């Protein structure tokens, strides 16, 4: 068996071109080129990257990097930190309430929900799923001045991404941003269609099903025609007039401004400073720039997120004597928060696992 060889023919096949002629190949109606779905995937990945690099954790006592912690929080909204005596290990996991709420709508007791495998079961006296199913932790919401053995072994501290709603639930950021991501992807798709229509490529209505195979490749053929200055592309239709197919009503700059506005809103909702796109023909004052960029909104969102993390660190320290620290990325705030001489995060260091603190052994 010979090793696979990458050829120009195989590359053409992957991008939808005929291997011999280099022209668009005949494709089925289900095959798409660049679509709203493709852009949505890219924007979701970008949104995830923003959030997993927004916070820098140190001395967590967890076998997790800062990016791991931020990723879990991004997709869960809130997590619980606890010490598992049977495993002699600290954990940070999703949870569910297993008791009535207190007077303020907060859970009194919770049960952790682990991502487990069979190998993990060997670390505890019972299989992991049975152990966690029967293990309840008492939630600690404020700093403790006196700590008992019961507190060390059966307490949990909730880490929230931001202030919860009235029910006490924190909707994951990934879900909160879903609609805006899809909306922004749609705008880019509309803008691209508008640009294609503006090239002057004309759709021609063909007659009958005999020519249907040719028009099934309309998406690929239309883009190819626009890039190669071909004026006519066959489009099967018995109801839509030619004028309707080629009409272009939108201004590309308007699409771009709309996409940038949604992009800025996404950034401010994540606590990130944004920049705007403006009509150069109009005067824009500094206050307008600040408002469009959402600098005040972003600062308040970031402040709320930081407060929730700082409260979590203080409560954990009061129980187990662990000096967990969490700061926003220096790349975002443009300040030297760790006093190392540069306002830039050093991603080569595993900050979340720095300096094991033996507070529980003292």
Cα-atom radius of gyration: 28 Å
Oligomer: single chain
User: Helix/strand-derived class?
Assistant: alpha+beta
Give a count of the beta strands, DSSP E runs of length 2 or more: 10
Tally of individual helices: 14
> Uncertain runs with pLDDT below 50, 5 residues or more?
1-8, 27-33, 239-245, 277-294, 353-358
| Approximate strand percentage | 5-15%
Level of helix content?
40-55%
What number is the mean pLDDT? 74
- Overall, the morphology is elongated
Order of helices and strands: HHEHEEEEHEHEHHEHHEHHHHEH
Largest sheet: 6 strands, mixed
Q: Give the distance, in angstroms, between the N- and C-terminal Cα atoms.
A: 64 Å
Q: If strands are numbered along the chain, what order do they take across the biggest sheet?
A: 3-2-7-6-5-4
Describe the structure.
The protein has about 350 residues and is of the alpha+beta class. Among the domains are: about 30 residues, no CATH class; about 80 residues, no CATH class. About 40% of the residues lie in helices and about 15% in strands. The protein has 14 helices and 10 strands. The strands form 3 sheets. The chain has a 6-stranded mixed sheet. A two-stranded antiparallel sheet has the order 1-10. The protein has a two-stranded parallel sheet with strand order 8-9. Helix 2 packs across helix 7 and helix 7 runs antiparallel to helix 11.
């Amino acid at each position: 068996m010979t090793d696979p060889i990458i050829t120009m023919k195989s590359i053409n096949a992957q991008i939808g071109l005929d291997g011999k002629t280099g022209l668009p190949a005949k494709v089925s109606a289900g095959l798409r080129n660049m679509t709203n779905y493709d852009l949505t995937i890219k924007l979701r990945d970008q949104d995830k990257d923003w959030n997993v690099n927004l916070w820098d954790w140190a001395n967590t006592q967890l076998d997790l990097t800062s990016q791991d912690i931020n990723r879990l929080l991004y997709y869960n909204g809130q997590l619980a930190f606890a010490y598992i005596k049977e495993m002699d290990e600290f954990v940070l996991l999703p949870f569910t309430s297993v008791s009535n709420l207190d007077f303020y709508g907060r859970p009194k007791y919770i049960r952790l929900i682990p991502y487990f495998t069979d190998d993990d079961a060997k670390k505890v006296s019972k299989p992991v799923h049975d152990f966690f199913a029967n293990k309840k932790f008492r939630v600690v919401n404020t700093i403790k001045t006196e700590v008992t053995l019961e507190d060390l072994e059966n307490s949990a501290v909730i880490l929230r991404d931001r202030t919860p709603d009235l029910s006490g639930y924190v909707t994951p950021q990934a879900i909160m941003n879903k609609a805006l991501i899809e909306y922004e992807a749609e705008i880019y798709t509309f803008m691209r269609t508008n640009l294609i229509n503006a090239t002057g490529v004309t759709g021609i209505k063909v007659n009958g099903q005999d020519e249907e195979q040719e028009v099934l490749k309309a998406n690929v053929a239309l883009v190819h025609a626009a890039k190669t200055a071909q004026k006519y592309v066959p489009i099967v239709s018995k109801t839509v007039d030619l004028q309707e197919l080629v009409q272009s009503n939108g201004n590309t700059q308007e699409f771009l401004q709309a996409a940038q506005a949604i992009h800025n809103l996404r950034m401010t909702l994540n606590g990130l400073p944004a920049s705007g796109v403006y009509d150069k023909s109009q005067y824009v004052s500094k206050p307008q720039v600040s408002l469009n960029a959402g600098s005040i909104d972003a600062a308040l969102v970031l402040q709320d997120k930081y407060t929730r993390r700082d409260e979590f660190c203080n409560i954990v320290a009061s129980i187990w004597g662990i000096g967990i620290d969490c700061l926003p990325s220096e790349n975002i705030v443009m300040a030297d928060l760790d006093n190392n001489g540069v306002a830039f995060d050093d991603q080569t260091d595993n900050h979340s696992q720095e300096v094991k603190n033996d507070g529980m052994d003292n």
